[in-house]
């Protein structure tokens, strides 16, 4: 199976002339030799540009490669722009799998004999089918006897094995590229594939998707901006998810939206608002916002409300990430590139020894042309793309969650402009950035800090009398110890003085005894000697004792 797959991949790569993408001089002799030996697999699409050949090859290799290409299309720091653009057109055209097989998966996962036990009108023909899962409609029998319109998302059978096998091959290929490409260190193919593996495997777990949906729904409870369908978590498993069926207009159906009298300006602005609310208020954002996952509710066209589905990919941000975004955007829109450079160095995002002037100049070079457009037309997504590309050149490791955010931002802005071309992004986004900055720096920051620490103090308060008592007791103990220490010191000093006195007396005794001997007065000398020994013994006993305290 593995060798057949390797054969198929190698054949596809060569038939689409993808080996042309790597200059021959970069390859070791044995790979060049190997290519010549495979002369019966020529490039059959010579007339097509490289980007298109890559796109077609990935499409023919199947969903794992298509999704990989889609992910790469957002990494403009890694790929030339024409190839990145072409990859953005990747479509996964996969035939649906048998609806009866889906039914059996549902019955097995939910541990029921027949689908009719829980659902009515299960549609064997899928409503939609994608590379990883397909969606069937049905009605859920509720406890009160009511029927609720729902959809059941089912992961494709055997997709896990295909994904694992293809990922393994992709990893081997990445390892070869990392070893042989001169640009291997910068392009980091192994890391790119590892990141992809994580995203893809996350998408295979519908329990994770259900949890994301519940969290988003809670964040937008009672919101006029966004509706998230209810997920029935008790009927959801790793490969099956039951969700309220929504009835909205796909956001890509611009003509239909206009025909229904939807306020397009408001709709576009609300899209940006939803995104910034998720980022700066909740730190939790839907990161797969392609138009197929966004609908507009049919109820009130003057106050259009979004409906979101497909919560397989979400991004989370910590306070540092948000500070990075807010401060950089504000500095950037004030065209203060020095500040942008300093922010990166001060926060340790780029190494301390980075030359600020050089970094500032690099940021200016890539960002200044953006200001040739009116402020209203500037894309935050492109600002981030340029900023990250420059920062990477200065050794900044851009965090995956920030790359995910940049990608989502590009989607949102593209969508906003498609809905309402005159959309003033800056006007819509600025209040969010300013509010967030004020919350971090102004009096609100103090209030927030008190609020955040309140539970800690509330927990410690009942212990306060004990802590005070213990504190006072230990202070008393310390004072008593200090006093003892002082007395001991005094005593030691006194001992030293006494010992000094007896030592001098002994020395004088020795000197006098020697003098008496020299005078021939033996009896006096003997008396003096005995006296000197007695005094000497006294001096020995009076010597200060050195004690080491624990
Ligand atoms: N709650 C729902 N109500 C109505 N239709 C839905 C619902 N959820 C999904 N669908 C339909 O099923 C399609 C596929 O759903 P979803 O995007 O969740 O699957 P997916 O496998 O992640 O697809 P993709 O990979 O294309 O994003 C949607 O485009 C939509 O048409």
Describe the protein.
The strands form three sheets. Strands 1, 2, 3, 4, 6 and 7 form a six-stranded antiparallel β-sheet that branches. The protein has a four-stranded mixed β-sheet with strand order 5-11-10-8. The model is unreliable at 546-550 (pLDDT under 50). It is built from 21 helices and twelve strands. Helix 1 (2-15) runs antiparallel to helix 3 and helix 3 packs antiparallel against helix 4 (63-72). By secondary structure, the protein is of the alpha+beta class. It folds into three domains: 2-93 and 161-201, no CATH class; 250-441, no CATH class; 464-541. The protein has helices at 2-15, 29-37, 50-61, 63-72, 81-87, 99-109, 159-180, 184-187, 189-203, 206-219, 254-259, 264-282, 319-333, 337-346, 356-367, 380-393, 400-419, 425-441, 443-460, 464-518, 522-541; strands at 119-120, 128-129, 133-141, 147-155, 226-227, 231-232, 240-244, 248-250, 284-286, 294-297, 306-308, 314-316. It binds adenosine-5'-triphosphate (ATP).
Percent of residues in beta strands? 5-15%
The radius of gyration computed from the alpha-carbon positions, rounded to a whole number of angstroms, is 39 Å
Average of pLDDT: 83
| Overall number of domains | 3
Largest sheet: 6 strands, antiparallel
Beta strands, count? 12
What is the share of helical residues? Answer: 55-70%
Query: Which small-molecule ligands are present, each listed once?
Result: adenosine-5'-triphosphate
Shape: elongated
List segments where confidence is low: pLDDT < 50 over at least 5 consecutive residues: 546-550
Structural class: alpha+beta
Distinct helical segment count: 21
CA-CA gap between termini: 72 Å
Main location: membrane
InterPro entries: ABC1_dom, Kinase-like_dom_sf, UbiB, UbiB_bact, UbiB_kinase
Enzyme class: transferase
Family: Belongs to the protein kinase superfamily. ADCK protein kinase family. Belongs to the ABC1 family. UbiB subfamily.
């Amino acid at each position: 199976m593995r060798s057949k797959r390797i054969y198929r991949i190698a054949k596809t790569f060569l038939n689409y002339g993808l080996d042309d993408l790597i200059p021959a001089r970069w390859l070791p002799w044995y790979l060049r030799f190997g290519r010549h030996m495979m002369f019966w697999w020529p490039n059959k699409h010579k007339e097509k540009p490289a980007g298109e050949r890559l796109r077609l090859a990935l499409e023919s290799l199947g969903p794992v490669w298509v999704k990989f290409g889609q992910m790469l299309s957002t990494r403009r720091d890694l790929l030339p722009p024409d190839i990145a653009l072409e990859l953005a057109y990747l479509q996964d055209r996969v035939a649906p799998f048998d609806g009866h097989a889906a039914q059996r998966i549902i019955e097995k996962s939910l541990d029921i004999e027949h689908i009719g036990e829980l659902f009515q009108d299960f549609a064997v023909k899928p409503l939609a089918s994608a590379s990883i899962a397909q969606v069937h409609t049905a009605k859920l029998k509720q406890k009160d006897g009511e029927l609720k319109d729902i959809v059941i998302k089912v992961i494709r059978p055997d997709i896990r094995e295909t994904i694992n096998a293809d990922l393994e091959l992709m990893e081997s290929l990445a390892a070869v590229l990392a070893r042989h490409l001169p640009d291997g260190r910068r392009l980091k193919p192994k890391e790119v594939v590892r990141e992809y593996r994580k995203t893809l495997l996350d998408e295979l777990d519908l329990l994770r998707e259900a949890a994301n949906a519940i969290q988003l729904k809670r964040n937008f409870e009672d919101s006029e901006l966004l509706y998230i369908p209810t997920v029935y978590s008790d009927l959801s498993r790793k490969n099956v998810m039951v969700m309220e069926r929504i009835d909205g207009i796909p956001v890509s159906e611009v003509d239909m939206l206009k025909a229904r009298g939807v306020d397009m300006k408001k709709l576009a602005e609300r899209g940006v608002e939803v995104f910034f609310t998720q980022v700066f208020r909740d730190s939790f954002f839907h990161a797969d916002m392609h138009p197929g996952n966004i609908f507009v509710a049919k109820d009130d066209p003057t106050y259009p409300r979004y409906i979101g589905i497909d919560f397989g990919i979400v991004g989370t941000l910590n306070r540092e990430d948000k500070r990075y975004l807010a401060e950089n955007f504000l500095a950037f829109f004030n065209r203060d590139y020095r500040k942008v450079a300093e922010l990166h160095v001060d926060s340790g995002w780029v190494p301390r020894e980075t030359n600020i002037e050089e970094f500032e100049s690099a940021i200016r070079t890539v960002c200044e042309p953006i200001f040739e457009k009116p402020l209203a037309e500037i894309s935050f997504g492109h600002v981030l793309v340029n900023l990250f590309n420059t920062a990477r050149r200065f050794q900044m490791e851009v965090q995956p969650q920030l790359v995910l955010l940049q990608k989502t931002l590009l989607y949102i802005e593209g969508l906003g402009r498609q809905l309402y071309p005159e959309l003033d992004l800056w006007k819509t986004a600025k209040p969010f950035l300013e509010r967030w900055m004020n919350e971090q720096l102004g009096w609100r920051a103090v209030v927030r800090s008190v609020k955040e620490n309140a539970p800690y103090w509330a927990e410690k308060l009942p212990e306060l009398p004990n802590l005070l008592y213990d504190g006072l007791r230990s202070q008393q103990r310390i004072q008593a110890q200090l006093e003892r220490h002082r007395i001991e010191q005094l005593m030691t000093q006194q001992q030293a003085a006494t010992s000094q006195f007896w030592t001098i007396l002994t020395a004088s005794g020795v000197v006098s005894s020697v003098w008496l001997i020299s005078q021939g007065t033996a009896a006096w000398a003997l008396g003096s000697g005995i006296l000197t020994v007695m005094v000497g013994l006294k001096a020995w006993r009076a010597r200060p004792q050195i004690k080491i305290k624990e």
